[in-house]
Amino acid sequence: MEKRRLSFWEIWNMSFGFLGIQFGFALQGGFMSRIFQTLGADIHDIPIMWIAAPLTGLLVQPIIGYLSDRTWSPRWGRRRPYFLIGAVLSSVALFFVPYSPALWVAAGFLWILDASINISMEPFRALVADKLTESQRTYGFVVQTLIIGIGTWVASNLPWMVSQLGVSDSAASGVIPNSVKVAFAIGALVFLISILYTVFTTSEYPPEDMEEFEKEKAKKNQFIPDILNNIGNMPLTMKKLGVIQFFSWFAFFTMWSLANPALTEHVFSTPAPIQSAYDMTNAVQAEAFNTANTAFQKSSNLVGSAMGVYGLSSMVFALLLVLYTSKRRVNRKFVHMFSLIIGGIGFIYMYYTSPENLKYCFVLIGFAWGSILSMPYAMLSSSVDPKKMGVFMGIFNMFIVIPQIIAAVGGINYISGLLGKEAINAMTVAGISLIIAGLCNLLITNKNAVSYQG
Fold it and tell me: InterPro entries this protein is in (predicted)?
């Protein structure tokens, strides 16, 4: 089937749902550790509480990719039913997360939230490859990155924004502040509306050979053998990209799980107070705890706001690439390599920065983030069978979640512990990991992956 070139606004419409997905991920990435700390979690226990995120991705994305490859509805298409299901579940989970009364409830909500977001996210990646010609795919993934950047910046600033409007940052011990609750409620609404916008403004191509498609779909008990077969026969370029993804996502998981405790402690000097260190029956001690807790919550708002800058700079990065790739080819390998190295420098500089200059660290990290969200997928989509795009995009997610699982079960604590006990050492480890990821781009030699010759 001959695909026509799509206009900017058609690509924008099909990618707009990523705004909501990124609201979900940014609120999760920027504030779940804050919620865990508020509910009494120790800093060293936080990474393992985050294991829900990569584990659900490892299980959900290949399954959804496989199922969406074998789905077709004349009205709803192939990928859109999964957008919608994931959006409804994610919106419900987002709303209720900050109302968690205990640590185990918050950890459980993280499982539900991340699984639901993954149901929506994987088909969005496949949709770009489904709808766009080879020559437009870099452009398409970069437009997605532009929308993701907008979502990251706005969502990361939401608690600070609503706090500025007068919503309180103060709360009793073990209770999430209202500023966070309102932010998550707004995120839930944006998630649902943005997905609905894409569902109702985007059409999909039917399978090229409907008879063959129906025969393939009718086969029983093929899921596990097909997944294993595709894993065993993944293209060499995909394996090389997997090495890059490993170090990239180890770095970003470290940021999401430990940036708030590391930066509130090292940069703002307002670590989360430990309630057991205060005699809450003593009025003076109780007041001291409340003062320390409010200072921690306010500096957490500022950390979240600074983190939002990486969404803003990734948006600028994406906008420049949109303008460039709409007319010209781009060397994906070198763009990705230099972007990751720049991001690694941003992480390392956190050790030396001040509260006023923290945002500049995240500016550099944003270039890495913008590239991570576009270049690997553009390189991958030029290297795999289009008929298996969904399942390969799902399998590719293994290279995202495995490093996160390793980080969660002790990898971060062990490696950062080699540098010392301070939480900020985790950010240094993230920087080194991202620089290694950048250098690994030298492994990519497939000419179509590097720059599609269309």
Answer: MFS (IPR011701), MFS_trans_sf (IPR036259)
